[in-house]
UniProtKB/TrEMBL annotation:
The species this protein was found in: Salix viminalis (Common osier)
Family annotation (PANTHER family): ACYL-COA N-ACYLTRANSFERASES (NAT) SUPERFAMILY PROTEIN (PTHR47542:SF2)
Top-rank lineage group of the source organism: Eukaryota
Name used for this protein in its record: N-acetyltransferase domain-containing protein
UniProt-listed InterPro entries: Acyl_CoA_acyltransferase
SUPFAM superfamilies cross-referenced by the UniProt entry: Acyl-CoA N-acyltransferases (Nat) (SSF55729)
Amino acid sequence: MGSEVIVELQRNATNWANVVAEIVKIERKIFPKHESLARSFDEELRKKNSGLLYIEQNGEVAGYVMYSWPSSLCAFITKLA
């Protein structure tokens, strides 16, 4: 078994581009084109009310959850893989 870590992707992270690229690969493998955010993933994450948690396993992205919070009272999971 390797090491697993849950990480919140920060907007100013030095590894932003690498993490997003790995997530886009996962998107393309798992979801059909009409459900995939592969083309607009970076754009979606740059919205002020969205965030992303991902699990890193042995240095690679193994899964993620994208969320948004339309108000300070609630948040919604918008993508899970």
